[in-house]
Amino acid sequence: MNNSYSPQQLEQIIALALRQQQDQQNCVSESELFDIAEQSGLDAKQTEAALKLWQQQQQQRRAQWKKHLAFKIHAGSFISISCMLFLIDWLTGGAWWFFLANVRHEHWFI
Asked: Using alpha carbons only, how large is the chain's radius of gyration in Å?
């Protein structure tokens, strides 16, 4: 490899490698999890049940986050389109359609 790197690039590469190494060191494998649970006085069935419950909770949180994100996207689209239509109505002049709709239905009972 004949690539050369500036001191700033070298610093960024080394910092990234150190972060990746630290992330890997902070992780615990499933077998280590069961060993830790056993040392804490839990049997394998209790640990397995807790692990499955935790995974279900994580899935529910992800699903809830996705629903919330979808709501934000749809609300943003609705507001953007409504503002655009209002702007078009305002720029073209004439009577505003929402006032006309209100006037027409004001005396619907007569």
From this structure: 30
